[in-house]
Structure formats: C-alpha cells, structure tokens
Amino acid sequence: MSSHRGADPRTAAALRFARRAASGPRAPLPRALNEECGVFGLIGNDGPAASRVAMGLHALQHRGQEAAGICTFDGEQFYAERNLGLVIPHFTQAHVLEQLEGQAGIGHTRYSTTGAPNRRNVQPFYADLDIGGVALAHNGNLTNARVLRQRLIQQGRIFHTTSDSELFLKLIAQSRAPQITDRVREALGVVEGAYGLLVLSQDCLIGVRDPVGIRPLVLGRLNGAPVLASETCAFDLIGAEFERDIEPGEMVICSADGTVKSVRIFPAPAHPRPCIFELIYFARPNSFIDGQSVYALRKRLGQRLAMESPVEADLVAPIPDSGIAAAIGYAAQARLDYDMALIRGHYAGRTFIEPTQEMRELGVARKLSANKGVVDGKRITLIDDSLVRGTTSKKITAMLREAGAREVHFRIACPPIVWPDYYGIDTPDRDELMAATHTIDQMRDAIGADSLAFLSLDGIYDALDKGPRGEAPAFTDHCFTGDYPTSLADQDSGADCRPSGTLSYLKERTA
Ligand SMILES: O=P(O)(O)OC[C@H]1O[C@H](OP(=O)(O)OP(=O)(O)O)[C@H](O)[C@@H]1O
Ligand SMILES: NC(=O)CC[C@H](N)C(=O)O
Ligand SMILES: [Mg+2]
Predict the structure, then answer these.
(1) How far apart are CA 417 and CA 454, in angstroms?
(2) Domain ranges in the chain?
(3) Which fold has domain 9-25+36-273?
(4) Which end of the chain has a smaller Cβ tally under 10 Å, C or N?
(5) 244-275, pLDDT tens digit by residue?
(6) Domains 9-25+36-273 and 290-469 share a fold
(7) Whose CA is nearest to atom 8 of ligand 2?
(8) Is the pLDDT of residue 347 over 90?
(9) What residues does Mg(2+) bind to (predicted)?
(10) Is the reported ipTM for this assembly greater than 0.85?
(11) Residues annotated as catalytic (active site), given as ranges
C-alpha cells in the first residue's frame, strides 16, 4: 500500500479538490462530523449469541445511529436481521432475538460513509458461497472502492448494495482458495483504505485490522469465549474481559472451542497510524485505546489547551458530550470553576443527521439549551473537542449571549480541521470545513465569540505523550495535515461519483 507521505500532501489534496469541483456535484454528504460504524462479534458463547451481540452493539451506538444488524450461526444455518434505526428497542424484542439462533454471531451499527443510509446497505452482509455461508461487518472506508467496483461491474459482477463494504464479500466470493481465511487474505490484498473487519463463516470468526491500524479492533473473553469489538466499552456492558488490541495488519481466527490464532496478513508497520480522531471524538470516554483511558487522554488535551491558550474568565464549561473531559482538564489546569453552561437534552442523537443547514441548526437548538442560572453576567470559556462547519459553535454563542453571558471564549481541544477524511469519519469537503476557508480571526467573527483558539498540532502530540510529531507520526492526523496514510485511488482517479458506479441506480427510501 503506497503512502502519500513524502509527496506534498497539500498539493495532492488540493488537486483532488480541484478535480472534484470541476467534475460537478457529487452525492450529498450532509452531515457535520459523523460517527463511524461499530462492529461486535463472538463465538463459542455459552448460550444464544444474539442478545449479547445486541448489548455489545448498544454500547457502540455512539459510532453509528442509522442502522443496525445481527447475523448468527447455529452450527448448521445462518440467521440475519437488519433494521434501519437504533439497536434498542428493535434488537431487544424477544421475537427478534429468538429467531437469531446460535452461539456465534456478529453485529454492526452503521453510519454511512459510502452508499446511502438505506435498507440494502445495512450490515452485516451475507452470501451463500461454495464454501458455505459468510457474513461480514465492516467499520471504516475503502479508498479504492469505486475503482474496484467499476472494474468488477465491467466483468459482469452484480452488486446488491451501494456500500464499499460489499467489495469484501465479492472478493471473498470470487477467490478459489478452499479456506475462508485464505479468501479473506486475498481480498485484503486488493482493497485499500481503513477497516476493522469481522467475518463469520461456518468454521470460525475472523477479525482483521487494516495495515496501518487506522480503525480500531479489540479482543476480549466472555467466560472463555472470544469476543471482538470496535471498542472496549462493548466488553464492559456484557461483562467480558479485555485481552488485547488487534495489531495493525493482523488477522485473528477465533474458534468455537475458544482458541484464537493470530496470522500476519501485512508485515507489522514500522509506524502504525491509528486515527487520532478516535481519541479526540469518536470513542466513548470509558473505552481504552492502546491501553490508555480515552477519558484521561481527553482531559490531558484540555490541560494542554489551557497551557497554550489561557484566557480570563469566570468559569469553564463543556459543549456536551464530547467536550466534557477536555473541559474538566482545562478548568483544573486554569484553576477556574467548571460548570454546565449548557444542558443537553437526553432525547437528541449524538450528531446532526439532518440534510440541510437549517435542520442542522435546529438540531443544535434541540440538543443543547443555555443554562441561564449559570451563565447570566458571566465570562465563559467554552470547550469543545472539535470544530467542523462551525454550526454548533455559532448557535451556542448566540444562545449564551441571549442567556446573559458577558463574554464567550471558545477553546477547541484539537487543531483546525482543514482536510477531508476518507477512512470512515466522513468530514465534509474542504469548502464546507470552516477552518479550510477562514482564518482564525474570521472564524472567531463568524462564530460571534470574543476569542477563539485551537490546540496546536505539537500540543496534541505532546499531550498524548507521542510527541514530537516529526516524520513518523504516531497517528494519522490527515484532517489537520493532509498527510493521508494510504493511497487515495478513488479521489485520484476521478472515478464516477455515483454510488453504484453505473449509469443509473436504484434509489430506495431511507426510512
Ligand atoms: O462545527 P460543527 O460542524 O458543528 O461540528 C462539530 C461538533 O460536532 C461534534 O458534536 P456531535 O454533536 O456530533 O457529538 P457529541 O454530542 O458527542 O458532542 C463535535 O463534538 C462538535 O461539537
Ligand atoms: N463509518 C463506517 O465505518 C461505515 C462503513 C461502510 N463504509 C459504510 O458506509 O457502511
Ligand atoms: Mg459535540
């Protein structure tokens, strides 16, 4: 897999941007900072797997709220249920769980990055192959999906979905290798991009992480049975014990008797590049990544931010939820009171899935309300984990001023996001990223704040104990730097932007 490191990433990204602008509108990517998908699987469970997979998925709900699915295997047959919407209440209904028989199962909770949020794109994907049934669940995004898809369609292959993840299944199906593990290995030799991938066959449960480890995947045990998940928080909910992170480029083959065999699909990378955004925003604060508490790391980002960008204020307040840990760290470091200037409604989702700017703004208002009793007459330092389009920050500044805030200072616990993501985060195109089109002073004015500052790139590496960033950074931080850790074949080729790569495609209802 080639890397964009070395070439001038900014030039490469700017070229892609210009090419896309010239090639006309692409399928709309309506959201702000999207979550990612979550995957969960177990084999050799001491009872029906489905209810535990459902609980694991529920713990991973913050990674994807559009759809969820479970596929199980009872030793003879596979069973599947896929549904648009949240894991609960659908997957806690007795009649749904009862028909998902068997002691092995995988599940997926989706936030779409390639392919619309419709029914046919809901995972796990399943196919009856010559070697038996195969189900798969993918977190991440492939960067050569369009190119590969066009090639396969020209060869006469049929795609049932418009998702990049179906490519795994197609490639596994067309391999002639007798073993599922070799078929997966062959498929992984062809795809490029980011994946935490689960494959359930009649023989085993396979887990694989992409060559540089962009997306996470962890291994645990439940009464001796192997469990795989995107994040450790899923283990906590079902009472499983964390065993270890799957290594970048590693495949684990888990069997019903509890054995876990490790195979290297790609050589151990000299410099793994896990996505820095897992730590900043995606992961649940009670998860551990690479042995480190996400919550503690976020507090450290806040502390460092306070050292870099202090400001006189009466109190420090988070933008809930993902700004909370950084705000606690900031307040402690600045020796200022920490308080809740904003109250979050419990019935609003994590992010803004509405397709228009007007709806997104309504979304912020629905989710967050000013706490007048705390903010009236105060100078407030607001802490958020990230700023993408600026929708949240604009709306909140106005809300707080209306509630009587005397000054509103914004501090963001990561550097400005100036480059799009192609690995499953799905940040918007550059022209929609506020920091890509405004200077910091222009952003401050657009938000209406009294001051605005971001954590520096060196600061984030130092705070995470991985500094200095240098030539071999410990993370992929392409959103800040344009330094993409893989080739971006689809972007570079200008491949057809329509989701199917064909002249027309089936547009399904999304609810
Ligand atoms: O600048 P913007 O375009 O508004 O996007 C940035 C906001 O989006 C995210 O919050 P989100 O609501 O997705 O999740 P959260 O509730 O976990 O903070 C992030 O935490 C920022 O608050
Ligand atoms: N965010 C993700 O991990 C999405 C997985 C896959 N690319 C999809 O769009 O369904
Ligand atoms: Mg937020």
Answers:
(1) 10
(2) 9-25+36-273, 290-469
(3) Glutamine Phosphoribosylpyrophosphate, subunit 1, domain 1 (3.60.20)
(4) C
(5) 999 999 999 999 999 999 999 999 999 999 99
(6) no
(7) 112
(8) no
(9) 322, 384-385
(10) yes
(11) 37
322 is in an annotated binding site: yes
Q: Give the span between the Cα atoms of 349 and 121, in whole angstroms.
A: 21
DSSP 436-496: HHS-HHHHHHHHT-SEEEE--HHHHHHHTT-----SS-SSB-HHHH---SS--HHHHHT--
Find the angle CA(294)-CA(394)-CA(10) to the nearest 5 degrees.
65
Determine if the peptide bond prior to 321 is cis (ω within 30°). Answer: yes
46 has pLDDT over 90: yes
Looking at residue 357, what is its pLDDT?
65
Q: Which two tokens stand for residue 133?
A: 């049934």
Cα angle 282, 302, 393; round to 5: 65
Look-up of token digits 């495609």:
505
Protein residues placing their CB within 5 Å of the ion ligand 3: 322
As a whole number of angstroms, the distance between CA 201 and CA 470 comes to: 42
What is the distance between the alpha carbons of residues 322 and 114, in angstroms, rounded to a whole number?
25
**Cross-strand bridge partners of residue 251:** 208, 263
Tell me the two tokens of residue 16.
């892609």
The rounded Å distance from CA 58 to ligand 1 centre is 20
User: How many Å apart are CA 171 and CA 382, to the nearest integer?
Assistant: 48
Q: Which amino acid is at 222?
A: L
Pocket test for ligand 1, best of 280, 281, 382 (most atoms within 8 A of CB): 281
The separation between CA 251 and the C-alpha centre of its own chain, rounded to angstroms, equals 20
Q: Are 38 and 64 in contact (CB under 8 A)?
A: yes
Tens of pLDDT along 434-478?
999 999 999 999 999 999 999 999 999 999 999 899 989 999 999
- What whole-number distance in Å separates Cα of residue 41 and Cα of residue 77? 17
164 lines ligand 2 (CB under 6 A): yes
Residue 276 CA to residue 386 CA, distance in Å, equals 12
Say if domain 290-469 classifies as CATH 3.40.50.150.
no
Contact 298, 326 (CB under 8 A): yes
Task: Express as a percent the part of the chain with pLDDT over 70.
Answer: 88
Going by C-alpha positions, the residue among 90, 92, 70, 88 that lies closest to residue 79 is: 70
Give the number of other Cβ atoms within 10 Å of residue 159's Cβ.
20
SS3 209: strand
Chain centre to alpha carbon of residue 24: 27
Is residue 340 helix, strand or coil?
coil
Q: Report how far apart, in Å, the C-alpha atoms of 448 and of each of 85, 348, 377, 430 are.
A: 35, 25, 17, 22
For residue 21, give both structure tokens.
């602008």
What pLDDT digit, counting tens, does each position of 397-446 carry? Answer: 999 999 999 999 999 999 999 999 999 887 778 888 999 999 999 999 99
